[in-house]
Amino acid sequence: MPLEDGDPASWRGQQVNGEVSGTPQLRGTGHPPPWGTPAPDGSRTEAMAEGWEPGPAPGDRDVTFGGGPQRAGQEPWQREEALMGELSELVQKVVKSSSWWERHGVDISILTCSFLLLPAGFLCLRSAQAIPFLAGVLTLGVVHHTLTVKGSHLASHNALTESKSWGKVWAIFFIELCSAFTAEQATYNHVKIHHGYTNVIGLGDSSTWKVPFLNRYIYMFIAPLAVPIITPLVALDLLRNVEWKAALRTLCCMFLGLYCHYWLLLHVSGFQSPWSALLCMLLTRSLLAHPYIHVNIFQHIGLPMFAADRKPKRIHLMSLGVLNLPRNALLDWSFGHSLISCHVEHHLFPSLSDNMCLKIKPIVSQYLKQKKLPYNEDTYTSRLRLFLQRYEELMVHAPPITELVGIQ
């Protein structure tokens, strides 16, 4: 049975220098499945990823551990589900009392403002002077990442609207037209795999972000510049895993989005040669690629990792394997709160918009700390320093599996 809270060997889940402390036993390794591979136990995956109910059924061999007094006669898995149910009830009260503006309007307004800034960005690039030209590059770069990162992320979770039909439309628009990727594969990999199996080795462990043959400085500071080129190439490869109608639609949307960007640079911004226009496209589309890559690895890799048959219940899985970064005006606008300072909240309640994640943040953080569960937070510079120092361990070698001490 689990160790009592007073046992010094029990897992505490406290933060030390941006990592979760404890005394884990390490064993085994694993590799991520190929794109398009059905998730194991797929019937429950979507419920875990998007629903607010506790995760797997009691029969699963999930890890449980201490974190507060256990009620008499209550099984460990019942206590875990009760914790998630209690937190969900608190959050649902906030959501129900919130207006449409708070639930969706704020984030839709940010995306709308980004669209309205597009003409100014393209026109600034017409200038022969350095300052207006750089202002145009900065504007288009920020707008591009707002639409492709924030817009695509919210659309993949259907967090922009309460209509599933419109949610599908927005997913195609933001993911395929703006981001040059495939909506089906992006949604499957992110929502059903990464969210359903956060930090589970071979499934949602962020292994897709690892490029072991690159050294730390190339990966962290040079390779991100290639993201705008790699993204559509990966999308083309993934089209083998979708139906031909969806593949044809994706190809048309990808071509239309890329060609419109190129055409506007030639005919509105006044670029004289195709190569200069293509170079400007690469520059604007990679402007925030460095923090994009960094954020995706900082918030999961280096935290506890689990085997599929030895993972904690949902509330512990998310509190252990997810980390929040501090608020940052530029990244909050371009990426959204759910990817920066409210990532824990987002993984617990993925269908909420960025603004709602920010609104429930005090409730979630207070609840987790009250129940003696981890609530991981660290700074961007601290995580960057950690990854540069331990790059071989975290990004080259396969991550070890965490066994919570005292669990039988």
From TrEMBL:
Q: Where is the Fatty acid desaturase domain?
A: 133-377
Q: Under which name does UniProt file this protein?
A: Fatty acid desaturase 6
Which residue windows are transmembrane per the record? 217-239, 246-268
UniProt xrefs under InterPro entries: FA_desaturase_dom, Fatty_acid_desaturase
Query: What's a single GO CC term here?
Result: membrane
- Residue runs in coiled coils: none
- Which species is listed as the source? Eudyptes chrysocome
List the Gene Ontology MF annotations in alphabetical order.
Answer: oxidoreductase activity, acting on paired donors, with oxidation of a pair of donors resulting in the reduction of molecular oxygen to two molecules of water
